[in-house]
Amino acid sequence: MAAAGRPGLRRVEHIMGTAISLDLADDLPAEALHELAERTFDWMREVDARFSTYRDDSEVCRLDRGELRLAEASDDLRAVLERCADLWTATDGFFDAYATGRLDPSGYVKGWAAQVASDRLLAAGAPNHCVNAGGDVRVRGHAADGEPWRIGVRHPWDPTATCLVLAGTDLAVATSGVYERGHHVVDPRRGTPAVGLRSVTVVGPDLGEADAYATAAVAMGTPTGITWLDHLPSPWQHAAITDQSHLFHSRTLPRHPSR
Amino acid sequence: MRRALLAITGLAAGTTALVVLKGGPGAGPATAGDVPAAQAPVAPGGTPAPDGVTAAPSASAKAPASASASAKASPSAKPDRKPASRGGDRTSTAPAAPRTTTKAPKPTTRTVTGPTVTYASTGSGPKEHQVRVQITLSGNRIVDVRGLDLPVGGQPGRLADDVQARYSGSSGEVVEKQSANVNTVSGATYTSTAYKQSLQGALDKA
Predict the structure, then answer these.
(1) Between A182 and A100, where is the model more confident?
(2) Does residue B76 sit at the A interface (CB-CB below 8 Å)?
């Protein structure tokens, strides 16, 4: 909730099986902030209802079972599937919405949903905000203290620590790793769990793409994943941590100066 | 990786050709004692080296033929080139050469290792790499081809060096803990339960 002495509003809700944290830093009237937060979480709940693979009645599940034809699917779903196909190509097949043998665009959807939420906040007159959807972060403008947003990257062996601090006023930061749910990222070419990279963080302009790139790099493992990340065009940047706890990152990664 | 495999393929074919061509009676010190020299040299249908990789068989032609195959006729070696099967666990299904002049001996399996061959690449970085090719024959069929001494991961060492040089640490920084003075935390998707123990959870409670 809004802390005393700072403008804006903070709120957390549990949606999509994870926590969505919203930090609105604009000095707006309380009702306006409340309304913006409501709309943001309504949107995330709507995405969950339509895209969840855990809900039998979601659009994704109905499409996957053949009960819904692609032509009848919503514009959002068709756009998401199109982007997933583009990302499959862009990642040499390592980002695969069918990696589990069924349609599961979750690796793109969560980041995409948070990105859309951020875009809408910007359009609605709240240019200073941070949306964190289960570890996928989109920041714009400045934090409530007037400084650029400081985004920690979770330490891959300690959930209570960070191993990198980034700072920026317009960043999408997505991290994929094997430490939360085990080696769940599957190399779609071999069908086996990916090894070599414990955590990959991708920084760029779009959170859905960032999430997909991070997932793909983890699936590639070492050294392929790091080489591939290194060839992403500007402005994409990354940090990768190997199973041997070595950190590799782009030279121009926007690290916070105070370490 | 593809380049390396193609190079191996080319080298395997080249080595086979050399072995066959070189292996006539009295044609050189055959050190693999139990392997009879080839007797019926036939032009192999080998795969040429691809662009960008130039096999240098002349170097190995001068080397002692530590490998002499029992191939009476040279099969068209077309090893399986699926990139997924690295490390030489492939089995190639080379067709039997129909042009053999004498009957093939009863199929015995033998493994022959060729000399170390230096090959050149046209890319940036070091121009030369070394590889040895080991072939397994059943009778006069090549049933397996392995590249030995391959750089780790099947990629030339220079690639790893290039990557490392472009990063902040010479061998990568060892990951450290950083200031917790952050507004938010990016991490792999946590469950709602894990969230409660996470730094993000603590920040949200603050």
Answers:
(1) A100
(2) no
Total-model pTM: 0.63
Query: In B, which residues are within 8 Å of A173 by CB distance?
Result: 186
Tens-place pLDDT, residues A63-107: 999 999 999 999 999 999 999 999 999 999 999 999 888 999 988
Exposure string for A65-104, b = 16+ CB within 10 A, e = fewer:
eeebeeeebeebbeebbebbeebbebbeebbbbebeeebb
Pairwise CA distance, residues B104 & A164, whole Å:
66
pLDDT at B94: 41
The answer to whether B187 contacts A154, with C-beta atoms less than 8 Å apart, is yes
Measuring CA to CA, which residue among A74, A63, A239, A81 is closest to residue A163?
Answer: A239
Residue A31, C-beta contacts closer than 8 angstroms, at least 6 positions apart:
none
| CA distance to partner chain B, nearest, from residue A193 (Å) | 15
What does the pLDDT read at residue B130? 63
- Return the pLDDT at B75: 41
List the single residue in A12, A135, A177 with the smallest CB-CB distance to B204. Answer: A12
Measured CA distances, A51 to A60, A135, A215, B144, B165 (Å): 5, 18, 18, 48, 42
Residue of B nearest to A137 (CA): B186
Domain ranges of chain A: 9-249
Asked if B199 is an interface residue toward chain A (Cβ–Cβ < 8 A), one would say yes
Q: How near does any CA of chain A get to the CA of B158, in Å? A: 12
Contact A204, A233 (CB under 8 A): no
Across the interface, whether the CB atoms of B178 and A177 are under 8 A apart is answered: no
φ, ψ at A81 (rounded to 5°)? -65, -35
Chosen for mutation from A199, A231, A246 (greatest number of chain B CBs closer than 10 Å) is: A246
Token couple for B91: 């089995």
Which comes out higher in pLDDT, residue A249 or B86? A249
Q: For residues A35 and A15, give the distance between their C-alpha atoms in angstroms, rounded to a whole number.
A: 18
A228 interfaces chain B, CB cutoff of 8 Å: no
* Distance spanning both ends of chain A, measured CA to CA: 29
Average pLDDT of adjacent 10-residue blocks, chain B of 206 residues: 49 45 39 37 35 37 39 40 39 42 60 69 55 69 63 43 44 68 90 81 83
Distance CA B73, CA B42 (A): 6
Q: What is the CATH number of domain A9-249?
A: 3.10.520.10
CA dist A233 → A17, A40, A238, A256, B169 (Å)? 33, 31, 11, 22, 21
Query: Quick check: A150 and B181 CB within 8 A?
Result: yes
Residue A166 has a pLDDT of 96
Does B168 touch chain A if contact means CB atoms closer than 8 Å?
yes
Prediction ipTM score: 0.92
